[in-house]
Amino acid sequence: MTTNRRRAATIPDVAREAGVSRSTASRALADYGSVSPEARERVRAAAEKLGYRANQLARSMITGRTHTLGAVIADIQNPFFAGVTRGITDAAHAAGYQVLLANTDEDLGAERAAVKTLCDKHVDGLVVAPASTTEVGHLATLVEGVCPVVLLDRRAPSLPTDAVTVDNQGASEDAVRRLIAAGHRRIALVTLAGGDADGNGEGGGRAFPISTGVERVAGYRAALRAAGVEDTDAYLRVGTFHRQDPAALTEELLSLPEPPTAVFATDSMVALGVLSAVDAHGLRVPDDISVVAFDDADWARVVRPRLSVVSQPVQELGAEAVRALLARIETGARPPRHITLNTSFIARDSIAPPP
Fold it and tell me: Are strands 125-128 and 187-192 parallel, antiparallel or unpaired?
């Protein structure tokens, strides 16, 4: 039996076609070492003519780089993280890198496994939205020299590495102040602020804190205290990812003898649960209850009434995390930086004075 499959071109083939030595062709193709511009151009032209494809494994052994980055994302179904991932991939591709993506579903065990798998594939660095901002031992080992890490959306105070976030506390405080300015005093906050330790039950039902949730609650409390509200936790409901439904938490609030007149949802997925519960109670936004959300999901501009939101620069967060990671890959050890991007409040139609 015969085959018409053509033998793949090799570096010696390219060298002969370009009229240079094998070592010169190798340096030109791998873009390292000293090669004259004229020789580099001849080698590239020969490679294109012969259809040469680089052996990435061999190239990485020479350069010590795979030109791949790992992205460990908390919940790819969440529109916020979908937008962040787009920012990561666009910035990485622009810099000549490919991205290997892992989704953890806010589960610490899944995150540990994802980090190990990506490191085994010799990625040049990791962008991580951590499932916990306290249980970061698996990341600390990498930061000590195995693999550069940049945290995204969330900070871990004990981890000496770069982080890219927004000012969650300040943005939340500003949003709640707007509800107070509209006349509200009974303002609820609904959030899912922690993930399970392990999806397989090894975590024993524990939930670890996440800095974004903690900071947004802190901003909520600060605004209420400044307005003279003594019990800042009376309408605070904090659930756990994948274990508690924000709609059920909102139902509990709306069933109180003195229910809230406004609700602040700490992300767009929580906001959907809040609006579902409000509708189930036969209430209208904003006539009966005002609603504000963190994150400007596409649907927030389409629903009626349109939802007032804290808008984050979603794709820019991902892109900035990649830029920080590439800078750390290039420069190595340097003091960690916390990069804080600005948010904006978009006032639409979901805020009115209390009934």
Answer: unpaired
Angle between helices 37-50 and 22-30 (to 10 degrees): 90
- Do the strands 344-346 and 308-311 form a parallel or antiparallel pair, or are they unpaired? antiparallel
Whether the Cβ atoms of residue 25 and residue 14 lie closer than 8 Å to each other: yes
Query: Do the strands 207-209 and 187-192 form a parallel or antiparallel pair, or are they unpaired?
Result: unpaired
Chain segment 244-287, per-residue pLDDT in tens: 799 999 999 999 999 999 999 999 999 999 999 999 999 999 99
Looking up tokens 């939802």 gives: 307
The closest of 275, 295, 274, 285 to 345, measured between CA atoms, is 295
Give the per-residue pLDDT at 334. 77
DSSP per-residue string spanning 129-151: --S-SS--HHHHHIIIIIS-EEE
Give CA–CA dist 117/99, Å, rounded: 14
3-state SS of 115-127 is HHHHHHCCCCEEE
Task: Detail the DSSP E strand segments found in the chain.
Answer: 68-73, 98-103, 125-128, 149-152, 162-166, 187-192, 194-196, 207-209, 236-239, 262-265, 290-294, 308-311, 338-341, 344-346
Q: Judge residue 202's burial from the number of C-beta atoms within 10 Å of its C-beta, 0-12 exposed, 13-18 middle, 19 or more buried.
A: exposed
Render pLDDT for 280-336 as a digit per residue (tens, 0 to 9): 999 999 999 999 999 999 999 999 999 999 999 999 999 999 999 999 888 876 789
pLDDT, position 3: 44
Give the whole-angstrom CA distance, residue 216 versus residue 294: 9
Report the candidate in 298, 316, 300 with the shortest Cα–Cα distance to residue 308: 300
177-217 pLDDT, tens digit each: 999 999 999 999 999 876 544 443 333 445 567 889 899 99
Please give the pLDDT value at position 194.
64
The reported pLDDT for the residue numbered 199 is 40
Q: How many other CB atoms sit within 10 Å of the CB of residue 203?
A: 17
The residue count of the chain comes to 355
